[in-house]
Every structure is written in C-alpha cells, then in structure tokens.
Design goal:
It is a single chain. The protein contains 17 helices and eight strands. By secondary structure, it is α/β, with parallel strands linked by helices. The strands form three sheets. A four-stranded mixed β-sheet has the order 1-2-4-3. A two-stranded antiparallel ribbon has the order 5-6. A two-stranded parallel sheet has the order 7-8. The longest helix has 18 residues. The chain is globular.
Length: about 375
C-alpha cells in the first residue's frame, strides 16, 4: 500500500448504513429465526409493530405494551417486553431475574440492545479513521471496562448521568442463559439488535466476575466436577452459551466449534500461544490434573462422547498436554479414537505412556509446528 492510499484510508469515514447492513448478516449468521407456528398472538402482534417504520405511534404502542406486561403479577405473564434497551439498565442481571419471575414457564421475553459492533460503527462513521481509533479506545475503556470492574464502576456511575454501557452480543446472550432463559430468535430490527428468549429455568446463583483469571467447571477423575483455571479468552458470560453454540454451529476440524464468535481478538492470540492455559499449572499443583492426559471437558461436550469413552475418561486425571497433539485428529470420532488409544495404554503402563506421549507432543508442537484451531 502506497503512502497516498494509506493516508486516504486514514482520513476516510465508514458508511454507517453499509456497516449496519453488513452486521445484520454477519452477526446473525448462526442465529435461529423465530418459528411462528405456536407463537402467542400477543407476540406476533408486537413483532409486527416493532418491524414497522419508526414513528411516535409505534413508540407509544410498544411503551404501553411494556408497561401493561410488567404491571401483571409474577408468574402470570405470557409475553414480556423490556421497558428500555438493555444498555441503559444499570443492574442488568437483577433486571433479567425480575423478568424471569414475571413470566410463566415457557413465557417469552423480548428485549433489544446496541451491540459493541454498532457502537464501533457509529464512531467510525463520525470521524476519520485516524481520529476514530483514538475515540473508540477511550469509549471502550470508559463504557466497557470502567462500567464493569469492581474498582472503577462506582466512579463510572458517579460521573455518568445516563447509563450507556456497551455490550458485545455474546455477553447479552450469555446473561440471558445465566438468568434462566433460552434464546429462540435474534435479528436486527432497524439498527437495534433484538432478542426473543423463552423462560426455561430459574436464574443461576453462581458468582461471576470480569477478571482475567477465570474458573471453568470441568469433569475430572471419578466424574467429580472441579474448577479449571485459565486466562479469559472469551467475552464475559460466554461459558453459559456452550449448548446454544452447539445447537446453531457445526463442529470444525479438530472437534471445536466453527465460527465461535465468543472468542475475543485478544483471546485468539492467547490461545494460539497457549498463554491462556498457563494457569492450569495451579490445577496440576493441587493434584486435580497431570501434565499429559485427555483434556478436562465441560458437561455439554462430555455428553457428545460415547458412554464407553466417558467411563474410560473418568478413571484417570485429565491433563494439560492432550493426545490430540500426537495424532492431530480432525473429527469428533477421530478424537475419541485418539483418546481411547491413549487411555487404554495409560491404564496398562502409566509412566511409560505419559513419558512417550510427552516427547511426541513436544516434537509435534515445537519442531513440526502442529497447532489446533
């Protein structure tokens, strides 16, 4: 790229309408579409009104619908519309729990929010790129970092007269699952991201943080659950979307989810360099894992394995360096065969098997450059 073209690019602005049109396709690529066969009449009418052009009559109808639905007693609402867009709600999880309590079992909660991608599009359409990067960085730190960290959020709310938090799409979806909902539809209506979720269970009571170091529930020896320590590579609350991702995405080569939009750009780097897995040495020191062995799996992923392999897996501790890097399998069936070979060999000759696999893994990673996606 020449100097002139580089300067032209840096002083150009993005076209907001074109970016939003692109996001309407890409952000909903693996999103389900709502099936209206058994939908309540209230929900059909509300969606029809929401999809009409913006006008005072449309806004009044939707506001009146929201007020009336929230005024009903707990446990008796069939369709509940959020009173405001989710970015403007300070205690969001508390609000979603209240919505869960209002609804009947299998009732529908309809909400909307501005995604972080839309926020970026707004900034880059207002300023030349060279200036937009500066403003976007400040906006990111203020509305996405300071508003959430325990040490800074008090200052954020002290200074902010109107709450304008910015959420990545995976975080909102994860919060809905965390609070007892299942997502049945996602789509842009005009330039606002709209989600229809269905009440399926009571909200989770697990603690959650935005910290760099996270704890993930995994299945260990004897089938006991334990916390695996890792550096965060996904957006907050993404761990609650695993079933949702599996239902709407395919498994990629290597047995991982294809187009996993939960992973951040920084997370891709941490995974590629294995930095995200360094905290697992804590699990090794605690005696929950060993250096070589099958990877600890989540309950959802564990359920994809054959019953025979499930029983074989829980006979030994999981490991940090998996047999995957010896065989480099591509499909889930091949991964299971690879793990079965390792486990059967390990149960017969533990030390010899791990010693052999360790040097084969080191050779493939260090000298042959083998990588997982």
């Amino acid at each position: 790229m020449g100097i002139r073209s580089f300067i032209s690019k840096m002083i150009a602005r993005d076209n907001y309408d074109e970016v939003m049109e692109y996001l309407a396709v890409t952000e909903t690529q693996h999103a389900p579409r709502f099936e209206f066969d058994d939908a309540p009449e209230q929900l059909r009418e509300m969606i029809a009104v929401a999809e009409t052009p913006r006008c005072p009559e449309r806004s009044k109808w939707l506001n009146d619908f929201a007020e009336k639905s929230w005024a009903l007693p707990d446990g008796e609402v069939e369709v509940l519309l959020s009173k405001d867009h989710l970015n403007a709600i300070r205690y969001l999880n508390r609000y979603l729990r209240e919505a869960n309590a209002k609804l009947k079992q299998d009732g529908y909660f309809v909400c909307s929010f501005d995604t972080s991608q839309k926020r970026r599009a707004q900034i880059f359409s207002k300023f030349p790129k060279i200036i937009a990067y500066f403003f976007y960085s400040i906006d990111f730190l203020w509305h996405r970092v300071c508003s959430k960290l325990r040490l800074t959020r008090w200052f954020y709310y002290l200074c902010t007269k109107k709450v304008r938090k910015v959420f990545p799409r995976p975080e909102i979806l994860g919060r809905l699952y965390f609070c007892g909902f299942e997502v049945v539809s996602e789509q842009y209506i005009h330039d606002r991201y709209c989600v229809i979720a269905q009440k399926k269970r009571q909200p989770s009571t697990e603690p959650h943080s935005y910290g760099l170091l996270i704890r993930l529930r995994r299945i260990g020896k004897d089938g006991k659950m334990f916390n695996v320590f890792k550096f965060r590579t996904m957006y907050a609350y993404s761990e609650y979307l695993q079933t949702y991702i599996y239902e709407n995405n395919d498994l990629d080569v290597g047995g991982k989810f294809s187009d996993d939009y939960r992973i951040t750009e920084w997370g891709h780097f941490l995974r590629k360099t294995w930095i995200d897995e360094l905290p697992m040495f804590i699990n090794i020191i605690k005696g929950q894992m060993k250096l070589v062995g099958v990877r600890p799996l989540s309950q959802q992923y564990y359920g994809l394995y054959s019953e025979e392999l499930q029983q074989l897996r829980i006979k030994v501790k999981p490991g940090l360096l998996p047999p995957y890097y010896v065989d480099m399998p591509e499909t889930l069936d091949e991964i299971q065969e690879s793990e079965k070979r390792y486990l059967e060999a390990y149960l017969e000759h533990p030390f010899r098997t791990d010693w052999k696999y360790f040097w084969m893994i080191v050779d493939n990673i260090v000298f042959k450059g083998k990588r997982s996606k």
